[in-house]
């Protein structure tokens, strides 16, 4: 649903244009600046809420008028939002695609309307050239690599000869799900100790993380050595399920998560998670700078990845600074 603040702002801009048009006032008072339409996936995680907050903060700091829509986890809602941005003739459209497929028609409409499109956080799959200008988001493949490299080091440290892994994945057909899975699988592929017992879709949400963990415990029980979970929400859902058994997460089962939001870092400090790979939601400044460049007709980089790190029981976790999301 469109936020009322954004509506009010847009109304003021329209009123300015209308007033100056009627009175013949100086043209410079009618400059509406950059109008950016942004379609967010939803509010499924602390990461997503932090990402929304960062984009809103950044729009205000850069003086960008933001038309923000929350799609509540629906691709259909995102497509409708993009159509509304086209109808409003925004200067630039940005969106975080919930899944990779199914965007061609609406993006062709944006292209025909001459509105540049920025992908934020996640990528799309398409056979058509020139539908989007650039992608600003994490290197999810590398996040999977970092998670697997940690596990290999941990297995060495503990002298493990056989490592049974269960994987709770993010939303099927989404970029972080596919790339976190591929980066992890490719990195453990040459290590004969590593076996993935099962990968199961947890949709990036806490309740599904709990459900998946219940099923995995019923199916594999004490054979599970490692839980590799594609985000903190699913990890935080899985932990209480493990704690209902006689196994202790962080000790009997190695827990690896991704995002590194505050709640997961607190649990890492308690020793119930072993490793959290960072995925930063702070993409707002890059988005505003890129949108302003596009409005000015300048070239932009095709892919912008933030630098990310790993937090784990290999380090002094008490020194980790507050995360802000
Ligand atoms: O696309 C980024 C992922 O989406 C984050 O890891 C997850 O928490 C969010 O829902």
Describe the structure.
It is a single chain. With 325 residues, the protein is α/β, with parallel strands linked by helices. 43% of the residues lie in helices and 18% in strands. The chain has helices at 4-23, 46-62, 75-87, 104-112, 140-158, 175-188, 206-220, 232-243, 262-270, 284-295, and strands at 35-40, 65-70, 92-95, 117-120, 134-136, 163-169, 194-201, 226-229, 254-259, 275-278, 303-304, 310-312. The strands form two sheets. A six-stranded parallel beta sheet has the order 2-1-3-4-5-11, with helices on both faces. It has a six-stranded mixed beta sheet with strand order 7-6-8-9-10-12, sandwiched between helices. Helix 2 crosses helix 10 (284-295). It is elongated and about 60 Å long. The relative contact order is 0.13. Bound molecules: alpha-L-arabinofuranose. Residues 44-45, 47-48, 121-122, 176, 204, 231, 258-259, 279 line the site of alpha-L-arabinofuranose.
Short synopsis of the structure:
The chain has 325 residues and is of the alpha/beta class.
